[in-house]
Specification:
The complex is a heterotrimer. Chain B is an alpha+beta fold. Helix content of chain B is 47%, strand content 13%. In chain B, the strands form 3 sheets. Chain B has a 3-stranded antiparallel sheet. In chain B, helix 3 packs antiparallel against helix 4. In chain C, strands 2-3-5 form a 3-stranded antiparallel sheet, with no helix packed on it. A two-stranded antiparallel ribbon of chain C has the order 1-4. The chains are: A mainly alpha, B alpha+beta, C alpha+beta.
Chain lengths: 348, 373, 162
């Protein structure tokens, strides 16, 4: 944001604007940039998801719209969703029903503020950055519960209840595995964490020591559950709950749920990239100067997203009690062990 | 599972439009949180008055309607009917017809079990096996289409013969398909059947004891999944199944108790391999002959009644025909395998979770077209 | 404790093996046909749209009797003695004038029984599968070309269109 503010200073007579506007314009500009970036990534991810699923299943996926391998298909779909009639069923709680998709989206979007896409491409470098992400991303659960409750549909209610139970429980191992990294760095700031990994591949936390590698695995599994991906897609389990909490939604509001889901995927992948895969750094001397940081960052994040998709299309879904078993009896003890181990490695 | 149902009970209406009820089945679930206290199936949304309707259609015209009962395995449906009418009329068919019927029935069984396995994977939440199974099923349907011209509702079996002979060179193609197909089953096993999540979701769920299964009259893979070795092809052979060597796979309870959903699913997968074996044996036995040699000019059975049972992919399929000597059946009653297993659903599913309801229903592999008729 | 770790290990192992199997298919050629551009060759025995070669039809009505769903309507009258005899292409004399030969494709169950009943093999099922229409009435095919000469009752009914 600072760089944007500085750029804006270059505009003649910028200082003549009222104080309030001077304060607001950089914020709005960076929001728009982040939103555009996110929307673009989501469009690409939806297309990628379709292609990955199709090729795993011996299909082709979208091939027509836009020419080359149907690259414009998601664009067309998004346009269609935006143009559709906004149906609000008669028996829903109208205010909550209308609000819910945006709150879900807000939770995903707000967390992007502290993501360091490049050495200087981030909105703000909060000194509690990672804590902020953990806090804000659990906001979307409120939206999910609102959607499920307001829909006045039993399947939606089941979906939202499952989502609440699942997201809240899986936040604990995720946060604990983040702790392991924080212990090693000694800072909560996202930029500091990335800077600590600069230099060589071995500085990346995933390769640094076995405990943090374990932390990466646990974070990855827990993040799958947080963004409701298979094998933890119980809240929207198609074959049981039809579509879970967004059964009653259509058109634009559904598009926002969809956007939030993929934005969340990108978020957890970005956090994993920042924490474990060295963020924007690339320890190959020449390449790191040519390729801009945000591109390196996004490529790493998309690699993780590809693994998420790959898992989704090859694994079945867990049951509610098994989901809880995996969390409380497998991931939790393991994350305690790794915190002890990472702490021991840090003070050794 | 002992559950205290003192909490508030919520009625959840699952179906008739629900992605996992395999058609238009309606389940009324009494749920306490995620646990289902009672599940009552309501059937009849696909009722087409088959049994009454065919009393007004001549014997040959009934065959297209039998196709539409179990549309996933139409070959087996019409085969049962045709065999019943032939038994009533005392028609003997020649060897080529017999073995062609066996080959077609077994191919159809493979296609049907592929649907069962694929949709079961879909029910459990894994979408990929579904499309892999359909990819191989399409190849079988290609054989059917090339032979009789239809992909799903064949009308291929005729009273006293078959509609067409297979095209020259088809035997070779079928054997090649089996060669290609058998490794695909292992692929499917590695993707789905042996997956730990899948096992956790299906073993220990929906346990149907052999006593329950027998007392409800459950047949077919569902009965064999409970460990009872009963197969009409083996125990009351027809069409010359007694000349062919094959095993009757039963649920062994590798994971959890015998009679779980995993056992029922696995019996189907193993049966597919047995069907491959049968086809391999039947193809060399095809002798030249005319498939319409014994087709009667008009199908007019003598007055009397007959009951013929065959092994359809979903269990024992029985046709009871009463003839008054006219051109149309006086009464036709179908003993449907899916209907009997559906009656056991309530007992098997008691105390399960919502996700298990889907799992149990999928493992029963019902086709509503046959339940409702 | 041993089973606990064994189960975790088994879970991870089978998940990885599932994913490996799935990933192999990422690079195998897919089986999809891009339908409007690519079409597969329909087998010659394909049973799709019914078609009647009315010049060969002798109006016997066997097909209507064989049809289990009664989707064929045939109405005929005797040709007068003074009229010139008409023959089908295989030489069968067309003693009846077929003035209505309607097939309702919405009722047809594609069993093909009518084609086997047809003595002159003029009623066939073709491999044509693209015949969706906007109007349901367009699925009723009127094959008859001749108009009734004497039957006053038939004139009241809608004359057969082509």
């Amino acid at each position: 944001m600072e760089s944007i503010a500085k750029l804006l200073q270059a505009i003649p007579k910028y200082d003549a604007l009222p104080e309030l506007l001077q304060f607001l314009i950089p914020i709005v500009t960076s929001c728009v940039i982040i939103f555009a970036l996110m929307a673009l990534c989501v469009l690409f991810m939806v297309w990628l998801e379709r292609k990955v699923s199709a090729h795993i299943q011996d299909r082709l996926g979208p091939m027509v719209v836009g020419g080359w391998h149907g690259w414009a298909q998601t664009l067309a779909d998004a346009l269609k969703l935006l143009l559709k009639e906004d149906i609000v069923p008669a028996s829903v709680d109208k205010i909550l029903f209308k609000m819910a998709p945006f709150i879900v989206f807000l939770g995903a979007f707000a967390a992007y503020v502290v993501l360091p896409f490049g050495a200087s491409s981030f909105v703000t470098d909060l000194n509690i950055g990672i804590l902020y992400i953990v806090a804000v991303s659990s906001l979307s659960v409120i939206g999910i519960i609102m959607a499920g409750w307001a829909s006045n549909n039993k399947y939606s209610l089941y979906g939202s209840m499952r989502a609440a139970a699942q997201v809240i429980s899986y936040e604990i191992p995720a946060a604990l595995s983040i702790m392991a990294v924080v212990i090693s760095v000694g800072s909560l700031s996202m930029v500091e964490i990335v800077k600590a990994q600069d230099g060589s591949f071995l500085n990346w936390f995933i390769f640094k020591n076995p405990f943090i590698f374990l932390a990466f695995i646990i974070y990855f599994i827990a993040s799958l559950a947080e963004v409701n991906r298979t094998p933890f897609d119980l809240p929207e389990a198609e074959s049981e709950l039809i579509a879970g909490y967004h059964t009653e939604y259509s058109g634009m509001r559904f598009a926002f749920f969809f956007l939030a889901e993929y934005a969340n995927m990108l978020l957890v992948a970005s956090v994993a990239t920042t924490l474990f895969l060295g963020g924007w750094t690339l320890p190959i001397p020449l390449l790191s100067e040519i390729i801009p940081g945000p591109i390196i960052f996004l490529v790493k994040a998309l690699l993780l997203i590809f693994i998420q998709m790959w898992m989704r299309w090859s694994l079945p879904r867990l049951r509610v009690d098994q989901l809880m078993y995996v969390n409380w009896k497998v991931l939790m003890p393991a994350s305690f062990v790794l915190i002890l181990g990472a702490g021991w490695m840090a003070i050794r | 599972m002992e559950v205290d149902y003192s909490g508030d009970i919520m009625t959840l209406n699952m179906g008739p439009q629900h992605p996992s009820t395999h058609g238009v089945l309606r389940l009324v679930l009494k749920t306490d949180g995620e646990i289902v206290a009672d599940a009552v199936p309501h059937i009849g949304y696909l009722h087409r008055c088959f049994e009454k309707h065919v009393e007004d259609v001549d014997y040959a015209g009934v065959i297209p309607f039998t196709d539409r009962m179990d549309y996933c395995a139409a070959m087996n449906m019409e085969q049962g009917y045709v065999l019943a009418v032939e038994k009533l009329m005392g028609i003997e068919v020649n060897d080529r017809v017999r073995y062609l019927r066996i080959i077609m029935a077994e191919l159809s069984r493979i296609a049907s079990h592929l649907i069962a396995a694929g949709t079961y994977g879909n029910d459990i939440g894994s979408f990929t096996p579904f499309l892999w199974c359909f990819r191989d099923r399409e190849k079988i349907l290609d054989f059917f289409e090339e032979t009789c011209g239809a992909r799903l509702l064949y009308n291929y079996h005729w009273v006293g013969g078959l509609m067409y002979d297979i095209k020259p060179g088809m035997e070779q193609k079928i054997v090649e398909f089996i060669d290609y197909f058998e490794p695909q089953v292992d692929n499917l096993n590695r993707l789905l059947s042996d997956n730990y999540i899948f096992i956790q979701r299906t073993a220990n769920v929906g346990i149907m004891s052999p006593e329950t299964a027998i007392s409800y009259g459950v047949t077919g893979p569902n009965l064999r999944g409970s460990g009872v070795q009963f197969d009409v092809r083996k125990d009351e052979p027809y069409l010359g199944y007694e000349e062919l060597e094959f095993e009757v796979p039963v649920g062994k309870g590798e994971h959890g108790p015998v009679g779980s959903c995993w056992d029922r699913y696995m019996v189907r997968i193993r049966e597919v391999k047995e069907s491959c074996k049968i086809i391999r044996q039947a193809v060399p036995r095809l002798t030249p002959g005319d498939v319409r040699e014994n087709v009667p000019k008009r199908v007019k059975p003598p007055a009397g009644e007959v009951y013929m049972r065959t092994e359809a992919p979903r269990g024992e399929l029985g046709y009871y025909i009463v003839s008054d000597g006219s051109l149309k059946p006086y009464r036709l009653k179908v003993k449907s395998p899916c209907f009997t297993v559906m009656s056991a659903f309530r007992e098997v599913s008691r105390g399960a979770m919502i996700a298990d309801i889907i799992s149990i229903l999928g493992s029963f592999d019902i086709v509503l077209g046959e339940i409702d008729r | 404790m041993v089973t606990y770790f064994r189960n975790i290990g088994l879970g991870i192992w089978t998940i990885i093996s599932s994913m490996v199997i799935a990933s192999r298919h990422l690079f195998t050629p897919s089986v999809t046909l891009q339908y409007p551009k690519e079409r597969w060759q329909m087998p010659e025995r394909s049973r799709m749209r019914l078609s009647n070669k009315i010049e060969d039809c002798i109006g016997c009505g066997q097909c209507a009797r064989a049809c289990p769903t009664s989707c064929i309507l045939v109405k005929t009258e005797k040709r007068g003695k003074e009229e010139p005899p008409v023959f089908a292409s295989d030489g069968t004399a067309k003693k009846l004038r077929t003035y209505i030969f309607d097939i309702d494709m919405t009722l047809c169950c594609y069993c093909g029984l009518c084609t086997f009943a047809c003595p002159t093999r003029c009623l066939t099922m073709t491999g044509d599968y693209e015949y969706s229409v906007y109007n349901k009435d367009d699925h009723i095919y009127h094959f008859a070309v001749e108009t009734p000469k004497t039957d006053a009752e038939a004139e009241k009914q809608s004359p057969a269109k082509d």
